[in-house]
Structures are given as C-alpha cells and as structure tokens.
Amino acid sequence: MPKAVIVGGGIGGLATAIAFTLRGWEIEVLERSTRIEEVGAGISLWPNALRALAALGLDETVRGRAREEDSAGIRDRKGRWLSRTDTEAIRVHYGSPVMMHRADLLDILRRAVPEGAVRTGISVTAVQPDGTVVHSAGTSAGDVVVGADGIHSVVRRAVCGAIEPRYSGYTAWRTVITPTEPVGEMGESWGSGQRFGYSTLPDGRVYCFATADMAAGTPGGGLDELRARFGSWHDPIPALLAAVGETAILKHDLYDLPPLKTFVAGRIALLGDAAHAMTPNLGQGACQALEDAVVLAHVATRGGDLTDYDSQRRPRTQMIVKRSRLIGAVGQLSSPMAVLARNALLRLTPSSTQFKSLAPVLDWESPRGGDQRSSSTSPMRTPSGPRT
Question: Cα–Cα distance between 63 and 264 in angstroms, integer?
Fold first, then answer.
C-alpha cells in the first residue's frame, strides 16, 4: 500500500491526511506539538473551502457547527458605511460562506483521521527528495512527503532552500468574547493605519480582530493598548472591548511568503502556509490549504507527477497572496489624504464590481474524474526534480 508522510498536524495537514485516506493510502502525520489544538480565534470558510470539504465528505458536518455569514462590509471608524458585500449574490452564485471557531474545524478534521495515524511530539529535522523524513523519533519514508508545517517550514528547505517570510508592516490582535448584548451587522471598520473587525460565532460569542501599523517584534500591546486605539470607535466596538479579558488576547505580527519557484521536489510537496503563507485580508489562508489537500491527493494518488500539483496550485495561490497583501496595504493606509481618497473610492465602487472581483477566488472547483480508490495501489510517478 502506498504511503503519505505528512509533516504538520494543522488544518492543511489533517485535511491532506483525510484526502489520502479516502483514496486508500496509508498515512503518517508527524506533529511537533504534544497536543493538536487550536488557539481561540474564529475562521471564515468561503464557498471554495466548503467545496474542498465536500470532497472530503465533511461539508455537512462543518456546516452543522458553523454559522452562515449574512452580512459584511467596511465602515469607517465612526460607523459610516464605505462598502457592503453583496452576500446574497455570493450565496446565489457560489454558496454561503460560514463562520466558526478554528478549534471546532480542527476537531472535525482530527476525528476524520484514522486512529493512530497522528504522532505528536515529533520534530522533523530534515527531508530528502526520495521521501525519507528524519525526525526526533528516527526516520519515516513515504511515496509522498507533504510539508504542511507552516510559514517556518522545515520541509520547505528541501524544496526551495532558505526562504525568509516578509513582514507585512502591521500586527494583529485576536480574541473571542461573550458579549453582554446582541451584536448586529458584522464587518470591518477601517481607520488610519488601523482596522477592527468582528463576527458572531454559532454559540453567540463574538470573534474580534484588529490590526495596527507597528514595527515587527514591538513588545506589549495588550488590552490597554487595544482600548486606547479603538475604544472611541463606533458601537459596538467599545462594548466588545469592555468584555475582553486580558488573558484572552492573542497578538501576532503578520507575515507572508514571497513567491516560491516551485512547490515540489522529488517526492516532496508543500501546501498551506509552508507554500504560500498569506495575510488574512481575504480570509483565504485555511481555505487555500483545504484546496491544496484535495488537489494534491487527486494528483498523487492517480499516478501523477507532482509537478502537475505545482502547476495547478502555485499560480492560483500566489495570485491570492498578492491580492491579500494589496488589500492589507490599502486597509492600513495612514496619511490623511490617502485615507480620504481610499474611503471616497470605496463609497463610489458598486457592490457588483466587488462581487466580480471575488470570482477568481471563489470559482474554484474540486478535481473530478475516476474512482477515488481506483488507484490506491499505484504510487505516484517520481518527478525528475524541482523546476526552476
């Protein structure tokens, strides 16, 4: 039986394990942490991600623990609408996006992975193009080795050498709170070099996130700073901040990856943040990792050359990385004249134009053709090496 060794037990790694399992492959997931768990944050799953989850047989399970997003848009710090997302048009053309807690998605994926396939507390130190993985517990070998080990991927070194992530220029705070009063329409609010957004989770809690221009590694930045920056913004932001507990705040500088020349080398393939880490401005990081998982399993288990995976996934994901970086740059504009011009342009842009701009992101379909288990005894053809 062919085998896939997957380095990383996050959303992308677990989805990949499920995708290969459905096609009859043996899997081994190597996770550095001693426990597979997710931080306290929400996650948007757009229709393209739900189609990937449907290919894994999990879309209905996910929807059962998620909430359909029924409103969205951008306001200024005083609450005046700058732009509204045509959620009805998205629903009609692509299906409804949903919001859920990241921990719930991770739990659903973990439960779908065969018992005993995940090994925790394993640190990978090196990967070779022939499928050998060197780690803290010895070695593993696979017909395919999947690098799903995040933006600081060890596996990526075997594919591309040393690649330094790029700092976006701003940091982010995330928290999940229990509001004292119901929260109305969801969305983001843009100020000068700062943004604040919120969305309701299925259990009534509210996921809040904020960004601010800041040098990488700036210390501090807890609840007092959040309230100082956003406490005078429009309702319900002050009330949401009043409900935040100090220990519930996550603060991370935001990075993405420059375009890689290839996602594959020999038997190795990269996916998720290891291949195309992106800023969260389009809400597509996890969505693209789910797409990656489905496409990689489709290509590899049908005897395909992994360069087919590269040619399908690299142009698309790098396009989305670029778009997300651009949206972040616009959202973080800080000079008064630039902010005025940006806000005026947003007000003048029809919602239909925004809807059309989403088409290249949302119109992805999962690969089809052939029985999933028909190639379960046929490992992939090994490519000659990385493309440059």
Answer: 33
Q: Which amino acid is at 34?
A: T
Whole-angstrom CA distances from 337 to 52, 340, 344, 349 are: 42, 5, 11, 18
Instruction: Please give the full DSSP string across 23-37, using - where no structure is assigned.
Output: TT-EEEEEESSSS--
pLDDT tens string 301-338: 998 789 999 999 999 999 999 999 999 999 999 999 99
Q: SS3 helix, strand, coil % of the chain, rounded to 5?
A: 35, 25, 40
Strand 98-101 versus strand 250-256 pairing type: unpaired
**pLDDT tens digits, one per residue of 289-305:** 999 999 999 999 998 78
Rounded to the nearest angstrom, the gap between the alpha carbon of residue 375 and the centroid of all alpha carbons in its chain is 29
Tens of pLDDT, residue by residue over 202-234, are 999 999 999 999 999 998 888 999 999 999 999
The rounded mean pLDDT for the chain is 92
Whether 316 contacts 273, CB under 8 Å: no
How many residues make up the chain in this entry?
388
At residue 168, the 3 state secondary structure works out as strand
Instruction: Please state whether 204 falls in left (phi above 0), alpha (psi between -120 and 50) or beta.
Output: left
User: DSSP letters of 87-142?
Assistant: HHHHHHHH---EEEEHHHHHHHHHHHSPTT-EEES--EEEE-TTSEEEETTEEEE-
CATH of residue 111's domain is: 3.50.50.60
Q: Give the DSSP letter of residue 385.
A: S
Task: Catalogue the long-range contacts made by 304-309 (C-beta closer than 8 Å, 24 or more residues apart).
Answer: 304/380, 304/381, 305/380, 305/381, 305/383, 306/144, 306/264, 306/267, 306/268, 306/269, 306/380, 306/383, 307/262, 307/264, 307/383, 307/387, 309/263, 309/264, 309/269
Please return the burial class of 27, using the count of CB atoms within 10 Å of its CB with bins 0-12, 13-18 and 19+. Answer: buried
Q: Is residue 183 part of a domain?
A: no
DSSP tag of 259: P
Tokens read off for 267: 């038997």
Query: Helix 285-301 and helix 306-331: axis angle, to 10°?
Result: 170
3-state class of 248 per DSSP? Answer: helix
Inside any domain, residue 197: no
Count: domains in the chain: 1
122 phi and psi, to 5 degrees?
Answer: -110, 120
Task: Tell whether 124 is covered by a domain.
Answer: yes
